[in-house]
What does this fold into?
Amino acid sequence: MTLKRTTDRPRIDAQEKVLGRALYAADQPFPGLLHAMTVPAKIAKGQILSIDTVAALNVAGVVRIFTHEDFSQIKTTPAARGAYGQPGKGHQPMTAPQIRHRGEPVALVVAETLEAAIEAAEAVTVHYAEEPFSARMEDDGASPEPEASQHVAGDARAALSSAAHVIDVEYWHPQQHHNPIELISTTAVFEDGILQIYEGTQAAAAFAGGLASMMGLEPQMLRGISPYTGGGFGQKNGAQEQSVLVASAALILRRPVKLVMPRGQLFHTASYRPRSRHRVQLAADDSGNLLAGIYESVQQHSRYDGFSCENGVNPPRMYNYRTWSGSDRIVRVDTQTPGHQRAPHEQASSYATECALDELAEALGMDPVALRITNDTQRDPMTGKPFSSRHLAECLRRGAELFGWDRRVAQAGVLRTANGDFVGLGVGCGNYKASMSPSVTTLRLSASGRCEIATSGHEMGQGIRSVIAEELIDVLGLEPDKLDIRIGDTGYAPQHLTAGSWGVGSAAPAARAAALKLREQLGLLTGAPLSEEPVHVQLARTRRPSLEVSIETIPLGKDRQVLDQMRKGIPATSGPEYPDFLAFSWIAHFAEVHVEPSTGRVRVKRFVSVADCGRVMNRRTAESQVRGGVIWGIGAALREAGETDPRYGGVLNNDLAEYVVPVNADIGAIDVDFIEEPDTNLNISGVKGLGEVAMVGATAAIVNAVYNATGKRIRHLPIRIEDLL
It folds into this structure.
């Protein structure tokens, strides 16, 4: 079938969510439900000497208080903590008296009511033996790893030494925290010999399998259920610090137990974007051709586990660098483990490299858009392989036209508003890998018109249910209100981690393949090509109540082994490098800022973003994704930073009052457009990811615009008023 432009339609779960009928993990009602609350550690490093629970146990309604003495049997394995195929967290709180970071749980209170659990948790007294610690990468006790990961193509240092135009700059990116609307929670219910775990997770199978390993249970004894996830952005990739504690408590007490972690505690227990430093050296000839790029990053990490530092992976894929040398190094400190946060490494690296590219354009006396187009390429400079599709130059040209880039004046501070504000225009570009994961999909059509599909995927607000529905409607002509889409539940289908912008690139082809197979099977039953009549009517004529098909989808470059990995909850994605090409999504951002001269206040008045993400499956959700990414970019540029207190090892601004994020008053017009060229080299749906690339380059566009307005190069984030006064 020919791929058509998708119809503009509301997201399939919009009414459910607006009316409050969409039940999230913590909304599930169970008789006899107990409420839990953790007691956070008040030191950054040391040992627990004793825990006094007498006052807490006297609180009416308290059922039990658990400590490390109750949970010492819990094991930590790579399978238990892993995400993206990495070992993940190596420290599980409350299995020993050891404290590895401030805020980790040291006791778990379980009570009949939430109020009792909170009151009792506050009444628990813990005595510690403190040890010296370092909570920031700048502190004396921080420990740099001796080895750095390397990314090399050609002799960049030799090219740099002989180049006509060279820049050498350093940028700092702050620690940032996810803060999704849905707080992290765990609800555990032991019923009919099965431990059901409801959690707003991005990886129901890995989550359930990991908890089984930690608790010493057979995998089939646990069922991971993630009905909806109210924002994940990488923070909900694996088991949380409280997950196994709640599951163990429910198993011991034989009653349902629910814990919703308070936001203030999540700043210390959940993953976050780590602080990082980026040195960028670029060289070009008189025509603006990039001769060399040298990129070195240093990134904060915890004392344990295997979260990677991959800041240097994507920048060399952006433009036609003739040579490249990159290195990424980790510095270990005494905090909880950082993790993947929307555009995990791409956000920080694009900020540094796209700002450095603007500095190079100025040194060349060249327009920043022209410099980027001059260095456009259809091949990956690192491997020489072609890209499956790349329309970045078209993104830049279309964006420049929509934005009115021709208004830009190279000299800073020339453009002014009627009231005297400085006006600055900036550009930044980004890319993000186009990955795919395997799926096992069952599609069942009833003669009544109802259609059920069970497949891999998690709804995190990104609209994956709408994507699945679009393919079923396109191929089978089904009615949206007759669809039952079952995802995020290991009881229905094997679940793969939904992250890294591969959700749509995995779920859409799986749904389309299943729909095509059902269409083929129905044609065999009817003995004739299908007509324009509804498919369920044609099925009814065969006197069959239903027709069911199952299909397994395996990503390019993989074999059937990935299906076994998925069934075990082990991530098995492919991309961005495939046998014959590399695949990425691309985006160009244009920002207009106004800066008030006497106060230095910055306002982002207008934004234009043009993305190349293959076929757009749902225009409404796609535009929403890009606008959300841009707003994150505004937050990163002008608002967000986790402030760690070096004296006590905790985040000082651990709430939404002082961890400042953009609000409506901070956001001007955001215009979004798409190239809309299906990438059928990659999959039968022609789709690539959008959620992550939406943010990449947005921060740099704002920072470059601030320079164009003020003439001040600020090489740290966020840009504050005092930087511009």
Q: What stands out?
A: Residues 79-87 have pLDDT under 50 and may be disordered. Residues 276-434+579-724 form a domain with the Aldehyde Oxidoreductase; domain 4 fold (CATH 3.30.365.10).
